[in-house]
Every structure is written in structure tokens, then in C-alpha cells.
Amino acid sequence: MNVVNLTGNSLTIEDLINVAANGYRVCLTEEAKERVTKAREIVDNIVDNSKIVYGITTGFGKFSDVTISGEQCKTLQRNLIMSHSCGTGRSFPKEITRAIMLLRANNLSKGYSGIRLSTLETLIDMINKGVHPAIPEKGSLGASGDLAPLSHMVLPMIGEGEAEFEGVMMSGREAMEKAGISLVELVAKEGLALINGTQVMTAVGAISLYKSMNLLKLSDIAAAMTLEALRGIRTAFDPRVHQVRPHKGQIDTAQNMLNLVEGSTFVTNQGEIRTQDAYTLRCVPQVHGASKDAVNYVKEKIEIEMNSVTDNPIVFENGDVISGGNFHGQPVALSFDFLGIAVAEIANISERRLERLINYQLNDLPPFLVKNGGLNSGFMITQYAAASLVSENKVLAHPASVDSIPSSANQEDHVSMGTIAARKSFDIVNNATRVVATELMAACQAIDFRDGLMLGKGTSEAYRIIRSKVSFIKEDTVMYKELDKCEELLLNGELLKAVEGKVKIEI
After folding, report:
1. pLDDT tens across 331-382, in order?
2. Is 54 labeled as catalytic in the residue annotation?
3. Are 9 and 150 in the same domain?
4. Based on the structure, what is the number of domains in the chain?
5. Which of 162, 197, 232 is the last residue of a domain?
6. Phi/psi of residue 90, each to 5°?
């Protein structure tokens, strides 16, 4: 059985993907259980002794000065979840929902939130048994955590809301009953412990990050194939050029290009056919490399956030309970905006290479890569569709983190909008994937118009995989179906796995 053990300190992007998409189970380590239990004892002591501590024996936000008696604590926690469940829009897909639940469980396992071990184990049972709460995409400001969406995550735990179980959406209570999981009666601090954190924005952003890391490798493959199709110049990727401007992403990309076209007779040397290529070919290392450096920066920040305490207040081992601001999403909000911009640029340059492939005024290939042009339109409108996605990305790439709006009667007067930034990055990555898939399909089409030449070590494998699903377009066909097939090879990992079995691709 494949299991991810939660320590609170060691969760990786790969762990998250395995739980979110690959069905891995989740377990708490014994050390984590001990930490959770000790923190709960501190909270129980506060309640038993009627101490005034924010979030435990007080109201929330602007109501932080309202004292709550021990008898009212259960009502307070239930009211918190129900009143904060104000999300709207479509529900997140199952993979993101599972990632949200995993990240919240990992946060709680660190032992700084004061939740009961039994309540945390209920959340983990939901992951393992496939009870997936309906969590609306919209409604979070990204400070005080992801309050609204995380409240929707909790609703089924208390017998409210909706959840998906075994492929069917039903009431939260019914889903819990069918899965054989007992409902929870929340006690002091537990409602707040479950919802005050950055796990929604981090989950969405982490999945976007994982997809973008793969896409950056695929974009190098696409660029290499286009380089070959256009008989481009390999000399621009000479390591000496990049060592004198030693950005890591740039150096890695140039080497990737050389690895992919190794042995190719399609590519040329400087001065053999032309002296220089257009920027979209010659500057692949500089453009793709900058995006790689950005993505690696984001990865560092996200893996910190995945293993951080983002609760408020925080319960420390010595009994101190401190109200701070770790729920504020600014560190990752900026990162997700950066991620969106970086990936939007990958789509931008890919669409321009697509234009160079299909525009006969820019190459020596048949117009729009089709025989009997006029009767057939060939790849003409594939560029239109790609251009529309690129333009949409330009709108989406506007940073969300520069915005803020006060909430809770101006008590919470600066917020991150990090969840919006994460959602935008997710959409940008999806759009960019379609653009790169379109470039790959067009590059294969262009390659087929050239005879007597040999593809490179990596590009020949990419060509083989694509041609196993997508045939040469002899005459006009229903194009989206062919594009869908090519895109699926990117999404399911088949293309990248095959190419990386032949050559090394760095990011």
C-alpha cells in the first residue's frame, strides 16, 4: 500500500501529487500524534481555568473582545463553520480538494493548533476513504487564511454541506455515513484550527507548480522540434554563450536544446543557411530559462509553506498561546503571481514559434502546413486559437497580490488575494499547455514536409510518440480532436516520460 506519512515537516510536491491524484493513503507518525495531544492539553487547561485567549474563549475577528464561556465553546465552533461557509462558484476538482485536505492535515500534525487528535484523524479518514467535500473556488481573501473555502471543507465533518463519495455528490452527512466515518462535535479552538490557514491557495498553487515544471520541460521539446522543422541554428546554444551570462535556467535550457537535437541533420550551423535565427528560436534559453528560474523560486516558497504553521492563535509547547499573522498569504500570493507571469511567457513564445511554422512568408514550407492550400486551411486556425489563449493569459497574468480590501470592520485591513493568484496561475498553466501542444503538433507536420533528414536523439522520440496518436494532416479534418490527442500526451506524462528516457532535461 502506498502511504504518505505526515510529520508536519517533510511534505513534498511529489507527496502532494501522489495523495491528490494517485490515490496514496495518509498516516500520522507517532511523533505527530504526541505533539497534537500535548497541544490539546494546553487548550483544555485554558478552557477549564476560564482564561481569556483569542479564538479559544473569545469571538473572532472584530469580535475578539467578546468573551465566550466554557459552556458556549461548542456552539461557538459550530457557528463559526456554518457562518463562514460563504463560498461561491464551481467546486474545486477532486484532486485539488484532496490536496487541500492533505495540507490542512499536515499543518495540524505539527502540533501548534490545539485540535483533538480524534478530529484530525477524522479529516485523514475522509482523505483515505474518499469523502471529498464540495469546496467552492471563490470566496477567499487570502488572509485570516482561506476561511470560506476551508469552512466548506469542514461542513461534512459536522454533518452539513455536500461531499462527493464514490463518484456521487450527496449531502455531507450521507457521505460520512456511507464511508463509515463518525461525525465530529467541535470543541474549543477546533473550528478555528481547521479553517485558519493558507491551505487552499497553497494546494491550488502547488498543483499549478507541478504542472508548470513538466510544461517547462515540454516547452523545450517543442522548441527543439520547431528548431529542426525550420532548419534552425544550433550554434546559438553553444555553452560558451551562456557561461558568460550564467543564469542557471538559461544554461540548463541551452544544454537541453543541444541534448534534444543531438545527432540531428535538420539543424544547421551559423552561416550554413542563415547567419541568425529569429528571437523565438535563438533566445529560447534566455526566455525559457528565465521562467525556469522563476518556477524554482516558487517551488522553494511553496515547499516552505506546505510545512508551515499558518494557524492563529498558535499554541506553543510551554503553554504560551500567541496571536500573530501566519495566516496571511502574502508570501505565496506574490509567488503565484510570479508563477502565472512566468508560464504566460512560455505560451507567448510558443505561439510565436507556431506562427513561424505556419506562415509561409517566414519559412520555406507550404502555407499553413497543408497540401492543396485554399481548398484546405490546414493549421491556419490553430494559430487563432493559440493566440486567443495567449491573450487570455495576458489578462490573467495581472497580479492579484497588488490588490487588497479591508474586512471584519477594518480589523483585517490588508489581505493578500493569494487564492485568486493561485487560481489564475492554474488557468494560465492549462492554457499554456494547449498552446505548447499545438506547437508540437505543427512542428511534426512541418517535419513531414522535409525529406532525407534525421531528427535528434530526443526529438525523434517526441515525434514517435506524437505520431502514434496524431497522423499527418493530409486534408482538413475536425482539428480539435487531433489537438486534444496531442494535448493528452502532455497531460498524461507519456510524451515527457518517453523523451526523458532518451535524454536528460533539466529545469
Report:
1. 999 999 999 999 999 999 999 999 999 999 999 999 999 999 999 999 999 9
2. yes
3. yes
4. 2
5. 197
6. -65, 155
